[in-house]
Design a protein that fits this description.
- The chain is built from ten helices and nine strands.
- The chain has helices at residues 32-59, 64-74, 91-104, 106-126, 129-140, 252-286, 298-326, 332-357, 368-380, 385-397; strands at 146-149, 165-169, 172-183, 190-197, 200-207, 213-214, 229-239, 288-289, 292-293.
- The radius of gyration is 23 Å and the shape is globular.
- It starts with 31 loop residues before the first helix and ends in a 6-residue tail after the last helix.
Length: 403
Protein backbone atom coordinates (compact mmCIF):
# COMPACT_ATOMS: atom_id res chain seq x y z
CA UNK A 1 0.00 0.00 0.00
CA UNK A 2 1.44 3.33 -1.06
CA UNK A 3 1.84 5.96 1.60
CA UNK A 4 0.09 9.23 0.85
CA UNK A 5 2.41 11.91 -0.38
CA UNK A 6 3.29 14.57 2.10
CA UNK A 7 2.04 17.97 1.08
CA UNK A 8 4.76 20.29 -0.15
CA UNK A 9 5.85 22.94 2.29
CA UNK A 10 4.93 26.40 1.10
CA UNK A 11 7.86 28.34 -0.19
CA UNK A 12 8.88 30.93 2.43
CA UNK A 13 8.17 34.46 1.36
CA UNK A 14 11.07 36.92 1.39
CA UNK A 15 11.52 38.70 4.68
CA UNK A 16 11.83 42.45 4.97
CA UNK A 17 15.36 43.41 3.89
CA UNK A 18 17.81 44.98 6.30
CA UNK A 19 19.84 47.95 5.16
CA UNK A 20 23.60 47.21 5.08
CA UNK A 21 24.29 49.89 7.71
CA UNK A 22 21.65 48.34 9.98
CA UNK A 23 23.66 45.11 10.18
CA UNK A 24 26.02 46.86 12.60
CA UNK A 25 23.49 49.34 14.04
CA UNK A 26 25.50 52.29 12.80
CA UNK A 27 22.75 54.83 13.45
CA UNK A 28 22.97 54.14 17.16
CA UNK A 29 26.50 55.59 17.12
CA UNK A 30 25.29 58.99 15.90
CA UNK A 31 23.85 61.89 17.85
CA UNK A 32 20.41 63.29 17.10
CA UNK A 33 22.01 66.39 15.59
CA UNK A 34 24.24 64.31 13.32
CA UNK A 35 21.25 62.31 12.09
CA UNK A 36 19.29 65.51 11.46
CA UNK A 37 22.12 67.06 9.46
CA UNK A 38 22.48 63.84 7.45
CA UNK A 39 18.73 63.80 6.73
CA UNK A 40 18.78 67.45 5.64
CA UNK A 41 21.66 66.94 3.21
CA UNK A 42 20.12 63.71 1.88
CA UNK A 43 16.79 65.46 1.24
CA UNK A 44 18.46 68.31 -0.66
CA UNK A 45 20.60 65.83 -2.61
CA UNK A 46 17.57 63.73 -3.56
CA UNK A 47 15.53 66.77 -4.54
CA UNK A 48 18.08 69.04 -6.22
CA UNK A 49 20.95 66.83 -7.40
CA UNK A 50 20.04 63.21 -8.01
CA UNK A 51 17.40 63.84 -10.71
CA UNK A 52 19.97 65.65 -12.88
CA UNK A 53 23.30 63.97 -12.18
CA UNK A 54 23.20 61.36 -14.97
CA UNK A 55 22.58 64.12 -17.52
CA UNK A 56 25.40 66.25 -16.05
CA UNK A 57 27.73 63.28 -16.19
CA UNK A 58 26.82 62.45 -19.79
CA UNK A 59 27.25 66.06 -20.94
CA UNK A 60 30.37 66.62 -18.83
CA UNK A 61 28.90 69.88 -17.54
CA UNK A 62 27.40 71.09 -14.28
CA UNK A 63 25.71 74.37 -13.28
CA UNK A 64 28.48 75.03 -10.77
CA UNK A 65 27.37 78.48 -9.62
CA UNK A 66 23.78 77.40 -9.12
CA UNK A 67 24.95 74.33 -7.21
CA UNK A 68 27.25 76.42 -5.02
CA UNK A 69 24.37 78.69 -4.04
CA UNK A 70 22.13 75.69 -3.33
CA UNK A 71 24.76 73.99 -1.20
CA UNK A 72 25.68 77.24 0.51
CA UNK A 73 22.01 77.77 1.31
CA UNK A 74 21.85 74.48 3.18
CA UNK A 75 25.08 75.30 5.02
CA UNK A 76 27.46 72.58 3.84
CA UNK A 77 30.19 74.83 2.43
CA UNK A 78 32.89 75.05 5.06
CA UNK A 79 30.37 73.62 7.52
CA UNK A 80 33.07 72.31 9.89
CA UNK A 81 34.72 75.74 10.25
CA UNK A 82 33.91 78.24 12.98
CA UNK A 83 32.75 81.79 12.35
CA UNK A 84 32.62 83.88 9.15
CA UNK A 85 29.19 82.52 8.19
CA UNK A 86 30.22 78.87 8.56
CA UNK A 87 27.97 76.41 10.37
CA UNK A 88 30.59 75.19 12.86
CA UNK A 89 29.40 71.56 12.94
CA UNK A 90 31.50 68.72 14.27
CA UNK A 91 33.66 66.57 12.01
CA UNK A 92 31.31 63.58 11.97
CA UNK A 93 28.43 65.73 10.73
CA UNK A 94 30.67 67.07 7.98
CA UNK A 95 31.69 63.53 7.07
CA UNK A 96 28.06 62.43 6.88
CA UNK A 97 27.29 65.36 4.58
CA UNK A 98 30.15 64.25 2.33
CA UNK A 99 28.75 60.72 2.36
CA UNK A 100 25.31 61.87 1.26
CA UNK A 101 26.73 64.08 -1.49
CA UNK A 102 28.99 61.35 -2.85
CA UNK A 103 26.07 58.94 -2.77
CA UNK A 104 24.82 61.13 -5.61
CA UNK A 105 28.17 61.67 -7.32
CA UNK A 106 31.83 62.02 -6.36
CA UNK A 107 32.07 65.18 -8.45
CA UNK A 108 29.51 66.95 -6.30
CA UNK A 109 31.29 65.97 -3.10
CA UNK A 110 34.53 67.19 -4.71
CA UNK A 111 32.99 70.60 -5.29
CA UNK A 112 32.15 70.82 -1.59
CA UNK A 113 35.47 69.36 -0.40
CA UNK A 114 37.56 71.73 -2.50
CA UNK A 115 35.46 74.72 -1.51
CA UNK A 116 35.35 73.99 2.22
CA UNK A 117 38.30 71.78 3.13
CA UNK A 118 40.89 73.21 0.75
CA UNK A 119 40.17 76.77 -0.37
CA UNK A 120 38.14 77.96 2.62
CA UNK A 121 40.19 76.00 5.15
CA UNK A 122 43.43 77.48 3.77
CA UNK A 123 42.09 81.01 4.25
CA UNK A 124 40.52 80.17 7.64
CA UNK A 125 43.66 78.49 8.96
CA UNK A 126 46.44 80.57 7.42
CA UNK A 127 44.85 83.83 6.24
CA UNK A 128 44.84 87.29 7.73
CA UNK A 129 41.70 88.63 9.38
CA UNK A 130 41.18 90.91 6.38
CA UNK A 131 41.41 87.94 3.99
CA UNK A 132 38.98 85.92 6.10
CA UNK A 133 36.44 88.74 6.23
CA UNK A 134 36.74 89.39 2.51
CA UNK A 135 36.33 85.83 1.27
CA UNK A 136 34.90 83.38 3.79
CA UNK A 137 31.34 84.67 4.36
CA UNK A 138 30.58 84.79 0.65
CA UNK A 139 32.25 81.44 0.05
CA UNK A 140 30.17 79.88 2.83
CA UNK A 141 27.04 81.25 1.17
CA UNK A 142 28.08 79.91 -2.23
CA UNK A 143 28.31 83.40 -3.70
CA UNK A 144 32.04 82.95 -4.30
CA UNK A 145 33.70 79.72 -5.44
CA UNK A 146 37.28 78.83 -4.58
CA UNK A 147 39.87 76.40 -5.90
CA UNK A 148 43.17 75.06 -4.60
CA UNK A 149 46.25 75.10 -6.82
CA UNK A 150 48.89 72.64 -5.61
CA UNK A 151 49.21 69.79 -8.13
CA UNK A 152 51.33 70.44 -11.21
CA UNK A 153 51.85 68.52 -14.46
CA UNK A 154 55.14 67.14 -13.12
CA UNK A 155 54.45 67.35 -9.38
CA UNK A 156 51.53 65.29 -8.13
CA UNK A 157 52.50 62.89 -5.36
CA UNK A 158 55.66 64.95 -4.74
CA UNK A 159 54.46 68.53 -4.16
CA UNK A 160 57.96 69.47 -3.06
CA UNK A 161 58.96 69.24 -6.72
CA UNK A 162 56.66 72.10 -7.72
CA UNK A 163 58.01 74.53 -10.29
CA UNK A 164 55.58 77.41 -9.79
CA UNK A 165 57.51 80.35 -8.40
CA UNK A 166 56.75 83.62 -6.68
CA UNK A 167 59.39 86.34 -6.58
CA UNK A 168 59.33 89.71 -4.94
CA UNK A 169 59.27 92.83 -7.08
CA UNK A 170 59.25 95.80 -4.75
CA UNK A 171 56.30 95.24 -2.43
CA UNK A 172 54.53 93.02 -4.99
CA UNK A 173 54.78 89.33 -5.80
CA UNK A 174 55.09 87.99 -9.35
CA UNK A 175 53.94 84.41 -9.95
CA UNK A 176 54.79 82.09 -12.83
CA UNK A 177 53.84 78.45 -13.31
CA UNK A 178 51.14 75.94 -14.11
CA UNK A 179 48.79 73.91 -11.94
CA UNK A 180 46.90 70.84 -13.15
CA UNK A 181 43.76 68.85 -12.27
CA UNK A 182 42.24 71.70 -10.29
CA UNK A 183 38.62 71.16 -9.26
CA UNK A 184 36.44 74.31 -9.60
CA UNK A 185 39.31 76.13 -11.35
CA UNK A 186 37.44 77.56 -14.34
CA UNK A 187 34.54 78.83 -12.24
CA UNK A 188 36.49 79.99 -9.19
CA UNK A 189 36.38 83.57 -7.97
CA UNK A 190 39.60 83.02 -6.06
CA UNK A 191 42.42 80.49 -6.39
CA UNK A 192 44.63 79.48 -3.49
CA UNK A 193 47.94 78.99 -5.30
CA UNK A 194 51.03 77.48 -3.71
CA UNK A 195 54.39 78.60 -5.08
CA UNK A 196 58.06 78.30 -4.29
CA UNK A 197 59.70 81.45 -2.91
CA UNK A 198 63.11 82.29 -1.45
CA UNK A 199 61.56 81.61 1.96
CA UNK A 200 60.08 78.25 0.97
CA UNK A 201 56.58 77.35 -0.21
CA UNK A 202 53.98 80.08 0.35
CA UNK A 203 50.27 80.35 -0.39
CA UNK A 204 48.74 83.20 -2.42
CA UNK A 205 45.17 84.33 -3.07
CA UNK A 206 44.73 84.96 -6.78
CA UNK A 207 41.38 86.58 -7.68
CA UNK A 208 39.82 85.59 -11.00
CA UNK A 209 40.47 88.18 -13.67
CA UNK A 210 43.95 89.04 -12.43
CA UNK A 211 46.09 89.86 -15.51
CA UNK A 212 48.20 86.89 -16.58
CA UNK A 213 45.97 84.36 -14.78
CA UNK A 214 43.81 81.93 -16.74
CA UNK A 215 42.02 78.65 -15.98
CA UNK A 216 41.22 76.62 -19.10
CA UNK A 217 38.87 73.73 -18.41
CA UNK A 218 40.06 70.14 -18.96
CA UNK A 219 37.63 68.27 -21.20
CA UNK A 220 37.21 64.71 -22.53
CA UNK A 221 37.31 63.13 -19.07
CA UNK A 222 36.06 59.61 -18.41
CA UNK A 223 35.76 60.21 -14.67
CA UNK A 224 34.37 63.04 -12.49
CA UNK A 225 32.43 64.32 -15.47
CA UNK A 226 29.91 66.03 -13.17
CA UNK A 227 32.68 68.31 -11.96
CA UNK A 228 34.70 71.25 -13.25
CA UNK A 229 38.37 70.29 -13.67
CA UNK A 230 40.87 72.84 -14.89
CA UNK A 231 44.43 73.91 -15.49
CA UNK A 232 45.70 77.08 -13.83
CA UNK A 233 48.18 79.14 -15.86
CA UNK A 234 50.13 81.98 -14.24
CA UNK A 235 52.17 84.19 -16.55
CA UNK A 236 53.81 87.09 -14.71
CA UNK A 237 50.80 87.39 -12.41
CA UNK A 238 51.39 90.43 -10.23
CA UNK A 239 49.86 90.40 -6.76
CA UNK A 240 50.03 92.91 -3.90
CA UNK A 241 51.85 92.07 -0.70
CA UNK A 242 48.60 91.31 1.13
CA UNK A 243 47.80 88.45 -1.29
CA UNK A 244 50.08 86.06 0.59
CA UNK A 245 48.65 83.82 3.33
CA UNK A 246 50.66 85.01 6.34
CA UNK A 247 50.22 81.89 8.47
CA UNK A 248 51.61 79.31 6.04
CA UNK A 249 55.29 78.66 5.42
CA UNK A 250 56.61 75.49 3.86
CA UNK A 251 54.77 72.38 2.69
CA UNK A 252 53.07 71.92 6.06
CA UNK A 253 50.53 74.53 4.92
CA UNK A 254 49.14 72.80 1.85
CA UNK A 255 49.58 69.35 3.39
CA UNK A 256 47.47 70.42 6.35
CA UNK A 257 44.71 71.40 3.94
CA UNK A 258 44.99 68.04 2.16
CA UNK A 259 44.42 66.20 5.42
CA UNK A 260 41.16 68.12 5.84
CA UNK A 261 40.00 67.09 2.38
CA UNK A 262 41.12 63.47 2.81
CA UNK A 263 38.97 63.20 5.90
CA UNK A 264 35.90 64.06 3.82
CA UNK A 265 36.86 61.37 1.31
CA UNK A 266 36.98 58.74 4.08
CA UNK A 267 33.24 59.26 4.50
CA UNK A 268 32.43 60.29 0.96
CA UNK A 269 33.67 57.13 -0.75
CA UNK A 270 31.30 55.12 1.44
CA UNK A 271 28.41 57.13 0.02
CA UNK A 272 29.26 55.98 -3.50
CA UNK A 273 29.58 52.39 -2.26
CA UNK A 274 26.29 52.59 -0.39
CA UNK A 275 24.45 53.86 -3.45
CA UNK A 276 25.90 51.03 -5.55
CA UNK A 277 24.97 48.40 -2.97
CA UNK A 278 21.44 49.73 -2.48
CA UNK A 279 20.99 49.70 -6.25
CA UNK A 280 22.33 46.14 -6.57
CA UNK A 281 20.13 44.79 -3.76
CA UNK A 282 17.01 46.40 -5.21
CA UNK A 283 17.86 45.17 -8.70
CA UNK A 284 18.58 41.62 -7.52
CA UNK A 285 15.27 41.41 -5.66
CA UNK A 286 13.31 42.52 -8.75
CA UNK A 287 15.28 40.70 -11.46
CA UNK A 288 13.92 37.25 -12.34
CA UNK A 289 16.43 34.69 -13.64
CA UNK A 290 15.43 31.06 -14.30
CA UNK A 291 12.02 31.74 -12.71
CA UNK A 292 13.56 33.00 -9.45
CA UNK A 293 14.70 36.35 -8.18
CA UNK A 294 18.40 36.99 -8.68
CA UNK A 295 18.57 37.81 -4.97
CA UNK A 296 17.56 34.25 -4.05
CA UNK A 297 20.72 32.68 -5.48
CA UNK A 298 23.55 31.81 -3.13
CA UNK A 299 26.24 33.37 -5.33
CA UNK A 300 24.39 36.68 -5.38
CA UNK A 301 23.87 36.64 -1.63
CA UNK A 302 27.57 35.87 -1.11
CA UNK A 303 28.47 39.00 -3.08
CA UNK A 304 25.97 41.15 -1.20
CA UNK A 305 27.07 39.81 2.17
CA UNK A 306 30.77 40.42 1.49
CA UNK A 307 30.12 43.94 0.24
CA UNK A 308 27.88 44.81 3.19
CA UNK A 309 30.52 43.62 5.65
CA UNK A 310 33.16 45.83 4.02
CA UNK A 311 30.80 48.80 3.87
CA UNK A 312 29.97 48.41 7.56
CA UNK A 313 33.61 48.09 8.54
CA UNK A 314 34.44 51.19 6.50
CA UNK A 315 31.67 53.13 8.22
CA UNK A 316 32.87 52.14 11.68
CA UNK A 317 36.39 53.23 10.70
CA UNK A 318 35.12 56.58 9.39
CA UNK A 319 33.12 57.25 12.56
CA UNK A 320 36.08 56.36 14.75
CA UNK A 321 38.33 58.75 12.83
CA UNK A 322 35.65 61.42 13.06
CA UNK A 323 35.50 61.10 16.83
CA UNK A 324 39.30 61.30 16.99
CA UNK A 325 39.23 64.45 14.85
CA UNK A 326 36.65 66.07 17.07
CA UNK A 327 38.80 65.18 20.08
CA UNK A 328 41.79 66.83 18.41
CA UNK A 329 43.88 63.65 18.38
CA UNK A 330 43.59 62.53 14.74
CA UNK A 331 47.01 61.94 13.10
CA UNK A 332 47.93 62.08 9.39
CA UNK A 333 48.69 58.36 9.27
CA UNK A 334 45.24 57.61 10.66
CA UNK A 335 43.71 59.69 7.89
CA UNK A 336 45.82 57.65 5.45
CA UNK A 337 44.39 54.43 6.90
CA UNK A 338 40.88 55.72 6.31
CA UNK A 339 41.51 57.03 2.82
CA UNK A 340 43.41 53.91 1.71
CA UNK A 341 40.87 51.43 3.06
CA UNK A 342 37.59 53.12 2.30
CA UNK A 343 38.34 54.18 -1.27
CA UNK A 344 39.88 50.80 -2.08
CA UNK A 345 36.81 48.99 -0.74
CA UNK A 346 34.37 51.42 -2.33
CA UNK A 347 35.73 50.88 -5.82
CA UNK A 348 35.69 47.10 -5.25
CA UNK A 349 32.03 47.35 -4.20
CA UNK A 350 31.15 49.40 -7.28
CA UNK A 351 32.79 46.90 -9.61
CA UNK A 352 31.13 43.93 -7.91
CA UNK A 353 27.72 45.58 -8.01
CA UNK A 354 28.15 46.09 -11.73
CA UNK A 355 28.37 42.29 -12.16
CA UNK A 356 25.01 41.86 -10.42
CA UNK A 357 23.37 44.32 -12.79
CA UNK A 358 24.89 42.63 -15.84
CA UNK A 359 24.59 44.63 -19.04
CA UNK A 360 22.22 47.08 -17.38
CA UNK A 361 25.10 48.05 -15.13
CA UNK A 362 26.95 49.86 -17.91
CA UNK A 363 24.17 52.36 -18.60
CA UNK A 364 23.51 55.72 -16.95
CA UNK A 365 20.04 54.45 -16.08
CA UNK A 366 21.78 53.01 -13.04
CA UNK A 367 24.50 54.81 -11.04
CA UNK A 368 26.91 51.90 -10.53
CA UNK A 369 29.44 52.28 -13.35
CA UNK A 370 29.30 56.07 -13.02
CA UNK A 371 30.37 55.65 -9.39
CA UNK A 372 33.07 53.17 -10.39
CA UNK A 373 34.45 55.59 -12.98
CA UNK A 374 34.46 58.44 -10.47
CA UNK A 375 36.17 56.34 -7.82
CA UNK A 376 39.05 55.73 -10.23
CA UNK A 377 39.85 59.43 -9.71
CA UNK A 378 39.18 59.36 -5.99
CA UNK A 379 41.57 56.42 -5.72
CA UNK A 380 44.49 58.56 -6.90
CA UNK A 381 43.68 62.14 -5.89
CA UNK A 382 44.45 63.55 -2.45
CA UNK A 383 47.25 60.97 -2.28
CA UNK A 384 47.45 57.74 -4.25
CA UNK A 385 47.00 54.37 -2.56
CA UNK A 386 50.74 53.85 -2.89
CA UNK A 387 51.52 57.11 -1.10
CA UNK A 388 49.09 56.38 1.73
CA UNK A 389 50.55 52.88 2.08
CA UNK A 390 54.00 54.43 2.49
CA UNK A 391 52.72 56.95 5.04
CA UNK A 392 51.37 54.02 7.07
CA UNK A 393 54.58 52.08 6.48
CA UNK A 394 56.69 54.95 7.81
CA UNK A 395 54.51 55.11 10.92
CA UNK A 396 54.98 51.38 11.50
CA UNK A 397 58.73 51.17 10.80
CA UNK A 398 60.10 54.66 11.34
CA UNK A 399 61.71 54.40 7.88
CA UNK A 400 61.07 56.99 5.17
CA UNK A 401 60.45 55.22 1.84
CA UNK A 402 59.74 58.31 -0.28
CA UNK A 403 63.35 59.28 -0.92
Amino acid sequence: MNSPKSPKSPKPSPSAPVHPFDLLAVDGLLTDEEREIRATVRAVADRELRPHVAEWFEKGEIPARELARTLGGVGVLGMHLEGYGCAGTNSVAYGLACLELEAVDSGLRSLVSVQGSLAMYAIWKYGSEEQKQRWLPRMAAGEYIGCFGLTEPDAGSDPGAMRTTARRDGSDWVLNGTKMWITNGSVADVAVVWARTEDGVRGFLVPAGTPGFSAPEIRMKLSLRASVTSELVLEDVRLPADAVLPGARGLSGPLGCLNEARFGIVFGALGAARDCLETAISYARDRVVFARSLASYQLTQQKLADMSVELGKGMLLALHLGRLKDAGTLTPEQVSVGKLNNVREAIAVARECRTILGANGITLEYPVLRHANNLESVLTYEGTSEVHSLVIGKALTGEQAFR
